[in-house]
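Continuing from the previous page of notes. For each protein in this section, the sequence appears first, followed by its structure tokens. Read the first protein now.
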Amino acid sequence: MAEFISLYSGSSGNSSVVRCGQRYLIVDMGKGVRTTSAALKALGLAVSDCDGILVTHEHSDHVKGLSTFLKKNTLPVYGAAATLDFLDSNGIVPASCELHELEGREEDVGAFGVQSFPTSHDVPCVGYRIHTPDGKTMTIATDLGMLTPPVHEALSGCDLVALESNYDLHMLRSGPYPYYLRARIESTRGHLSNDECSAKLLELIQEGCKKFALCHLSQENNTPALALQTVFNTLGAAGVVPEKDCIVQAQRRNEMSPVLEF
């Protein structure tokens, strides 16, 4: 049985684990080493059982904890070439750290098969489609302003999808953010809204996927209840019954979310 576990998820920091048996991968590390290490310890995960860290992009809410963590723990880091160059040139990873470029085709990362795909963000950014040792497939895609063909392809045919549901459009437009920041978030190189996420989830459910994690919710422009309600409204209008036909879980900002088995 494979598991997806969000250690924390939101604009203040993101990190998750994909586990199968004793082996696991970490995706991003956007909070301090104490927070991440405490979460791994609570799950009973030894660093020696980790096959590597996948990094989606260079923004601090995805890499803040890497530097200190990697000084204490020797693990390989995987990502797009531009992201790895940024981490190396800015001293975010130790000089001794093994850096492995993932660009397009599926690669073996320990016991897992991992394929990166580009997402539309304001810095080079990728998502990951992960095949577990027991033959399951999940995709994580956050920090994307639009659902491009590579993203649609990566989300298709999965047992679990972790997809960004960053903001409610009304909250964003009526909130305190200055115009330039609102425009950035809404742009095709910004973030995905609740409405956009919900529409994609319905499409994926109709294709057969049953388990979903809503990720990277904005603290200022969204709430877990609102993100879930938007999804449930979209699904309900199409005759899909949550809990019966699918499981949709909003991921918690500052603590671990319940384990999602897939």
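Done with the first. The second protein uses the same format. Note its length before scrolling.
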Amino acid sequence: MAWLILFAAGLLETAWAICLKYTDGLTRLVPSTITLVLVLVSLYMLSLSLRHIPVGTAYAVWSGIGAAGTVVIGILIYAEPLSWPRMICVGLILIGIIGLKMVDSA
């Protein structure tokens, strides 16, 4: 269950990173409020996962999901550049996440 919570927290990190684009430096009320709520829920879920997953592993997985997810969303929605080097780097992040899950006994 801790891993599912951590995965959801990572997805929420992707969501708040994307929402941050619309806040105009946290000056727009609605997008800023949505972003801050997503940040808080994501951090809360990360903290719940820390009850059963080592902090280094959980943080690396959480930030890795957020980073990889944000890159993919940027490519799909914002027409950011798609290149083999970028995709290889995202793949390495995902391999690291899978590797951390495999070596953790939680």
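What the second structure shows: The CA atoms of residues 3 and 49 lie 7 Å apart. Residues 2-103 form one domain. We return to this in next week's lecture.
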